[in-house]
Amino acid sequence: MPAAVNLNQPEREALSEALYECFQIRPTDAYACMQLANQIQLNSGVKISYNTLRRVFGIVKYQGSPSSFTMDLLAKVTGYPIWDDFVKAIQNRDNERFLIKNHLLSLHGVYDLAWIRKFVQCKETIDWQDSFQLKSLIHGAVLNRDGLLLLELTNLLQYSDDDLSLQRLYMSFEPIVLTAIESGPEFWTWVGDVMLVRPTLRKVMLEFYVHEAALDGYYGYFLNLTYSDMTEEFLVFKLLLNGQNAFAKRLDVSDFREQIDQLLITKRWRQFHPIIKGRIAAWAAIFNLSDLKTHLEIFESCKTWYEKAAFTSFFYRLYWTFASDSRFFKWNWEGVVEKKGLLNTFEFSQWNNYLLIQAQMCHLDNDSEGCAVNLDMVDSHLFALDNYEWFQAVYKDCKQYLQQ
Fold first, then answer.
1. Cβ pair 97, 37 in contact under 8 A
2. Residues 244, 387 within the same domain
3. How far is the CA of 260 from the CAs of 98, 257, 282, 329, 391, in angstroms?
4. Are residue 243 and residue 149 in the same domain, yes or no?
């Protein structure tokens, strides 16, 4: 049985255009599909049902996907040996068009708003090419400080049930993150206007947790904007980072301590991102609000290796920075987290951080063999953007320990 082909809207539109060029008929309704089927058979000898054409072009509701046999036939009548060749041809054409348009945007601030809108609306999922293309357009918006363009580029789906699309979407917004680290109020006044009305942009920026050293700048502006639709997770994130800022400045944190205690009592942390769980657990330890059992419960609620790696990285980052005792200087969260599958750069950076944490735990435990095993798997150039300098310092500390 021929394999099914997941036909996306740009491919469907390109095929419709190619058929029109060959037969001067657009498959826009049942009658046009009947005429097109007759013309295809008359001119090429290929017999294809008009009902098949109706399903391919979405004129009738159809739950399945067209077969590779059907798509190969349609590619053949438009001049391509098989469907894959047709797809590669339109991808090459679209890439060339994209490069020209992106060049005009990046160098001259000139862009086609209708094309940008269509580009964004076609993103039913985000694959790697989409991610890199979107990233380059966002770079153009940042470079030119074009709020209208950024509004269009952030009018995207949330992809809440598609983890791979989410990770690729996060990568697309790196130009904003990298600019945020080095920018002051001027930048945040500009981007803040877009964040107020674009939940997608806030979700992305929340995921990056840019740079702890910029609490007064990045976090001070971003976290204190007034949004009309803040989720509880975002509110807790604001609490954690503004509380951290106050703690670092030796201000009164009694309210912050009480709020952390309430999060533990109500166990609201269960619904949050693992990085936020790691932060909650760290502050609970710093304030002596919980015991080992509670910390293990929060840790074990992180089910995947990535979640555990993200939790551990942020727990120790905060604990080793702010704690005055050494309760968690010799605890490795009950064993090694097993890595499975291929990683993208974002995932690998969290895994990299986790391995370095394990190496440092072995160092503190005077276990040179364990430290060497973990450190050997660490890539010193791929720590997460968050706290990069801190992880670099820990890496250097482990290297010096092994050289003694």
1. no
2. yes
3. 48, 5, 10, 22, 26
4. no
